[in-house]
Amino acid sequence: MKPLLLAIVLISWGCIIYASMVSARRQLRKKYPDKIFGTNENL
Fold it and tell me: Tens digit of pLDDT for each residue in 20-41?
């Protein structure tokens, strides 16, 4: 594989993983709004 193609694939996968993490955090905030903000040891 070419280095440029590999870099594009890695960047696109990073964006997909980041977007899925953000959407999962939003769903967790809707379910547990009091546990997300600052109290990670209670999870």
Answer: 999 988 887 777 766 555 555 5
pTM score over 0.85: no
- Cα–Cα distance for residue pair 38/24, rounded to 1 Å: 17
35 in Cβ contact with 43 (< 8 Å): yes
Q: Are 36 and 25 in contact (CB under 8 A)?
A: yes
- DSSP assignment of 1-43 equals --HHHHHHHHHHHHHHHHHHHHHHHHHHHHH-HHHHSS-GGG-
Longest dimension (CA), the chain: 47
Give the residue carrying structure tokens 């600052």: 38
